[in-house]
Amino acid sequence: MAATADGLAMAQKVETFVREVVAPFEKDPRCGEHGPADDLVQEMRALARAAGVLTPHILANGHHRPHQDVAVILRASGLSPLGPLAVNVAAPDEGNMYLLGKMASDEQKARFLEPLVSGRARSAFFMTEPASEGGAGSDPSMMLTTAVMDGNHWVINGRKAFITGLDGAGVGIIMAKTDAGATMFLVELPMEGIRIERVLDTIDSSMPGGHAVVSLENVRVPADQILGASGDGFKLAQVRLAPARLTHCMRWWGAAARAHEIASEYAVRRHAFGKQLIDHEGVGFMLAENMIDLKQAELMIDWCAAVLDTGVLGTQESSIAKVAVSEALYRVADRCVQVMGGTGVSRDTIVEQVFREIRAFRIYDGPTEVHKWSLAKAIKRETAKRIAN
Fold first, then answer.
1. Where does the record place the Acyl-CoA oxidase/dehydrogenase middle domain (predicted)?
2. Mean of the pLDDT values across residues 36-54?
3. Which of 21, 153, 179, 374 is deepest in the core (most CB within 10 A)?
4. End-to-end CA distance of the chain
5. How far apart are CA 328 and CA 256, in angstroms?
6. Alpha-carbon distance values, 199 to 35, 89, 167, 204, 228 (Å)
7. Are 54 and 48 in contact, with CB atoms under 8 Å apart?
8. Phi and psi dihedrals of 259, rounded to 5?
């Protein structure tokens, strides 16, 4: 199986739009340290809507495209760090749309999903907690945020950290611990009791609203705003996280490919020691290694997308993809900076930002080491079983 003709056609439309319309906004002063301003996001989305490329991973009938189509579309969107935002396939919104599309009731879809699909609102996913307090990070079982029933409402208390896009978001999914276990709650934002303590200064700058530390103080959520049932939180998290790891890989593949294009053009135009820079073996070989890493990452993404479309993508496969692709794309971005020398660490091109964003990607949605540890545990179990038999 492969991407459909319709999916490939949409990917081409997205690529043309991102290269010709979105890329010029990369120098816009509204791109700040904590991400692009919301008025810039809405301006780009209006252009995407007019071009017929807004929310391209969702079909007109509301169904999610096959992930093999999503792979080519999101890779095209990632050719600019602003591309996923402009066409409405950025994290965390894309992952939240997928989760709500799969698990929300019809009433919840109308209230919480429709504003996201239409591009009118952004969203936030409240799971990670401050490490200094021993809260949930890569291990969600350590969750400290609580939800207690009071009449027909749940009352949520706790603190969250690294909540991407909260500043300016209109929809939130809060993960908290009830007597039944981890549970997800849907809320409209801003909301009484949810307070941004500060927006962290981080290495990346592509996501509007940045990454916030948040206090939840007696947040009252009506009982009908539970997603699924009380205690379903970990199960629902897996519905969201495995595909979200893969779509992260798709978007950042596009960014790395763009950086490679820029570095290759630089190496052909720049001369040193009597010849084109690319003709120096050290430079030419780095670009050749980029080509290899990009192709291997593309094949890994496409393989996982095909598996996901069968409905059997497991945590092992998504962990393998997350590690392999994030590490490969980081090597690509790092080589691009090195090939371009001083220009590579300047903001004269987008390469410097791509390097910063992909460095952060090695941590987000689970650091490389956590995924390797999980895979090592699986190897231990499977090997012990084989020995026993």
1. 131-202
2. 98
3. 21
4. 36
5. 10
6. 11, 23, 8, 13, 30
7. yes
8. -60, -40
Q: What tokens were used for 370?
A: 């956590």
pLDDT of 82 higher than 90: yes
- 8 A C-beta contact, residue 256 and residue 298: no
The token pair at 259 is 């950086």
CA of 264: how far to CAs of 18, 157, 261, in Å? 20, 51, 5
Task: Name the pTM for this structure.
Answer: 0.95
- Mind listing the domains of the chain with CATH numbers? 5-90 (no CATH), 123-230 (2.40.110.10), 234-388 (1.20.140.10)
Tokens standing for residue 88:
């409405």
Angle, helix 233-269 to helix 315-340, in steps of 10 degrees: 20
Residue with tokens 């040193």: 272
Backbone CA torsion sign across 303, 320, 323, 214: positive
Model pLDDT, residue 132: 86
Buried b (16+ CB within 10 A) or exposed e, 206-243: bbbbbbbbbebeebebeeebbbbebebbeebbebbbbb
Return the axis-axis angle of helices 315-340 and 351-361, rounded to nearest 10°.
150
Average pLDDT over residues 27-48: 97
3-state secondary structure the chain: CCCCHHHHHHHHHHHHHHHHHHHHHHHCCCEECCEECHHHHHHHHHHHHHHCCCCCCECCCCCECCHHHHHHHHHHHCCCCCHHHHHCCCCCHHHHHHHHHHHCCHHHHHHHHHHHHCCCCCEEEECCCCHHHCCCCCCHHHCCCEEEEECCEEEEEEEEEEEECCCCCCEEEEEEEECCEEEEEEEECCCCCEEEEEEECCCCCCCCCCEEEEEEEEEEEEHHHEECCCCCHHHHHHHHHHHHHHHHHHHHHHHHHHHHHHHHHHHHHCEECCEEHHHCHHHHHHHHHHHHHHHHHHHHHHHHHHHHHCCCCCHHHHHHHHHHHHHHHHHHHHHHHHHHHHHHHCCCCCHHHHHHHHHHHCCCCCCHHHHHHHHHHHHHHHHHHHHHC
